[in-house]
Structures are given as C-alpha cells and as structure tokens.
Amino acid sequence: MSAPLDDLVTLLDLEPIEVNVFRGRSPSESRQRVFGGQVAGQAMVAAGRTVPGERPVHSLHAYFVRPGDPGVPILYTVERVRDGRSFSTRRVVAVQHGRPIFTMSASFQAGERGLEHADAMPVVPEPESLPPLEESLRQSAPELDLSRLGPRRVDLRYVQESPIELRRRNLTASDQRRPARSQVWMRTAGRLPDDPLVHTCAVTYASDMTLLDSVLLAHGRAWDEPDLQVASLDHAMWFHGPLRADEWLLYDQHSPWAGGGRGLASGRIFTRDGRLVVTVTQEGLVRVADRG
C-alpha cells in the first residue's frame, strides 16, 4: 500500500468517541477547505458502522453546507432513523466549530432478488493503453505550464501523492470547448483491506474528484480562473452491486445542464468487466464574477 493510500485508509478509520458519535481528521495539506469527497467518505464510514454488515448501503443523499476547516477535527453524529426488516436508514451530521458543515441521509438494504437490467458500459480504451495522469500532463504541457490544463489545474506533486490513480481520455487545454462529457479510469493507488465498507467509502471519496469537470469542459473553463467560483453543493449516489475500489473502475461523466450559477453533472461507474455498480449525481456552484 502506498503512503498516500495508507493515509486515506487512516482518514477513513474514524475514532468512536461515544455511541453514534465519531471523530475524523483531515490530512496535513495546504488546502483552504476540506475536500468534499473526504467528508462524504468519512460520513459514510460513520453511518456504515451503525448498520449490520449484511446490509450494504444502496443510496446516499448529501449536502455540503459550509466549507470544512482542515485544521480541526470533524465530529460526525449518526441518527438511527429506522431499522426495518429489509432497510436501515441513517442520518449523519458533520460538525465543526459548533456548526454543521455537511449532512447526509443514507439507506442500507439486506440482499434481495428481483427484476434486473442495467446500462451497458461505453466502449473506451483499456486503462493500460492510457498514460498515468502525471505523464499525460507532461506530454500535454512540455513547458510545464499546467495552468491551462484540464478544467482543474493540477499540481504534479498533488497527482504524485494522490491515493487515487486516474487515467483520462483526451486531456487537452481547458480553453478548447468540448462536449460536456468526461471519461476517467480510476482505482486506489494500492491494495485495500478486504472490507466492503472501506471500498464503498473509497469510491465515495473518489466520486467527488472529477465529476464537475464535465460542466466546465463545455465552456473551456478552468477551476482556478480568478473570475470563477466552483464548489460542490450536493451529492447523491446509488450503489447497485459489490465493487473493489482497488481495481479499475470506469467513471463515465456528463453534464446535461448549467445555469443560474450552478451546474449539474451525473456519472456512471462500471467495473472493468462491464457491470454498472454506482450512479452519481451532483450539483455544484459554478459562479462567474461580473468582470465589469
């Protein structure tokens, strides 16, 4: 297991401090706010630890209420809303400085049989045929001016130290307008423990890394342009079957709409053998300042 991935597993190993109350920390990074995927992943850990293991999560719906402070711990309180014969429902509130920064409702279900169908995975290049993100960045910007690459400006040090390995298709300069679709192969940068909850939470963490890129692609914009403010507002996930976050997963993302200072994006996550295992939807703040 790589050091960044080991750090991620440690982040997801919340400290129980009371019944239904857990404490999480943030990594020692120079971020101005806590990464949204981290809060969602930790909240998923907190909820999952109050539910029997034979009831995996099948959906979550979350709101990012306030920016998280990376300098202080995050307190997660879990409300056991209901435990029925088939479903368990939990509500999680993440608190810092006495105020909620994140809320999530999650539903867990015991295994059942029923009608089955699923979208087919799109035809894409195999992950081994695509260069690692660091290499593709260097190829696209041999002068190492990365400020106009992708929708999100990428620091090579951040890429090298990420617990998630990404391989993208068609990485080009962000000022080139493209269809509002992005396809990314992703997996953790090393093997994870054989704990289904850890894999679910790692995918929850990774699901927030690239989803809003599809909104910006349609406009040739970059995350850190001075007149642009981008942040996650809400996040919903539906889990359709077992998965391993340490094996290649295809994240097929697109944005059907943007307007009113917001952008909507959805994604489908497939296993390498073509199973649809997660559906994700997120709305983000995409606010452009008045240049006048």
Total of DSSP H or I helical runs spanning 4+ residues: 6
Give the CATH class: Mainly Beta
Kindly report how far apart the N and C termini lie: 51 Å
Mean of residue pLDDT values? 89
Question: What would you call the shape?
Answer: globular
The CATH architecture term is: Beta Barrel
Q: Could you tell me the radius of gyration in angstroms?
A: 19 Å
* Helix/strand/pairing category: alpha+beta
CATH topology: Porin
**Order of helices and strands, N to C?**
HEEHEEEEHHEEHHEEEE
Quick tags:
292 residues; globular; 6 helices; twelve-stranded antiparallel beta sheet; alpha+beta; Porin
Structural write-up:
The protein is of the alpha+beta class. It has a single domain (3-111, 130-288), classed as Beta Barrel (Porin), CATH 2.40.160.210. The protein is 18% helix and 36% strand. It has helices spanning 3-12, 36-48, 133-140, 156-160, 196-206, 213-217, and strands at residues 15-18, 21-24, 57-64, 74-83, 87-96, 99-109, 164-168, 181-188, 228-239, 249-259, 262-271, 276-288. α2 (36-48) runs antiparallel to α5. Residues 141-158 have low confidence and may be disordered.
Question: How are the SSEs placed, and which strands pair?
Answer:
Layout: H1 3-12, E1 15-18, E2 21-24, H2 36-48, E3 57-64, E4 74-83, E5 87-96, E6 99-109, H3 133-140, H4 156-160, E7 164-168, E8 181-188, H5 196-206, H6 213-217, E9 228-239, E10 249-259, E11 262-271, E12 276-288
Antiparallel strand pairs: 1-2, 2-4, 3-6, 3-9, 4-5, 5-6, 7-8, 8-10, 9-12, 10-11, 11-12
